[in-house]
């Protein structure tokens, strides 16, 4: 299915979208980009710590650096606001292994 057809199906809430996501990977995005997008989405929705850890681990495996992950958080301030970014920073720090260096504990 091409991109315009996929968009059309989203516009009409086509029930076949569930099948699409069960059967095929992301259409055009490479894995590295996908992992960065997942981190951004998790920041935006204030996802649980376990979800952030998984997303950060996947990103590191995909070749994303810690600096790039932190840059995603910093860039999202314009979209999600500083309070959300501040709230999510400890989850990212824990996932990156910076918790001890930054004095952050579980659940901070």
Could you write a compact summary of the structure shown?
The protein is built from 7 helices and no strands. With about 110 residues, it is an all-alpha fold.
- The CATH homologous superfamily of the domain at 29-102: AhpD-like
Biggest beta-sheet profile:
none
Note the overall shape: elongated
The unreliable regions are: none
User: Might you state the CATH topology name of the domain at 29-102?
Assistant: AhpD-like
> Can you name the CATH architecture of the domain at 29-102?
Up-down Bundle
- The level 1 CATH classification of the domain at 29-102 is Mainly Alpha
| First-last Cα distance | 44 Å
Helix content: over 70%
The gyration radius over C-alpha positions equals: 16 Å
Structural class: mainly alpha
Q: In total, how many beta strands?
A: 0
Helical run tally: 7
Average pLDDT reading: 88
Strand content: under 5%
Instruction: Give the H and E element order.
Output: HHHHHHH
